[in-house]
Amino acid sequence: MSFSAIRRIVSPKKAVTVAALAAGVAGVALGTAPAQAATAPSPSSAQSVAHKMIPNSAQYNAFSKIVEHESGWNVSAQNSSSGAYGLVQALPASKMSSAGSDWKTNPATQIKWGLDYMNSRYGSPVQAWNFWQANGWY
């Protein structure tokens, strides 16, 4: 219903109130629409996913330390200077697409890719963490 149609039905003062209310409701509806940042998994949910994927406590702890240093468990963390992205700061970020098309937002996909990377390059998350401690990167 248009503003002019509302004006014909009710008094001008009520029409303005109704229009303002309608605009406010529309604004609230748009403001609460799911945004990427709003729908990103929380760090605790990403950690929960990692716990399920890495049952060995030593390997999980090493993986967790790397992720904490690299991204703070933020699935959408991005290094503004290098472009590294995600929990494990893949560079280029698109490398993670090999683990799944949802690599930008899914912690399980990022964790899978990170584990594969750590295992293939260092032998395990523990060995990747040892390298990180010695070098400040992995």
TrEMBL record:
Which range is the signal sequence, renumbered to this chain? Answer: 1-37
Q: Key word Acetylation present in the record?
A: no
Q: What is this protein called?
A: Lytic transglycosylase domain-containing protein
User: Entry's Pfam families?
Assistant: SLT
Transglycosylase SLT domain spans which residues?
A: 60-127
* Keyword terms, alphabetized: Signal
Which domain of life does the protein's organism represent? Bacteria
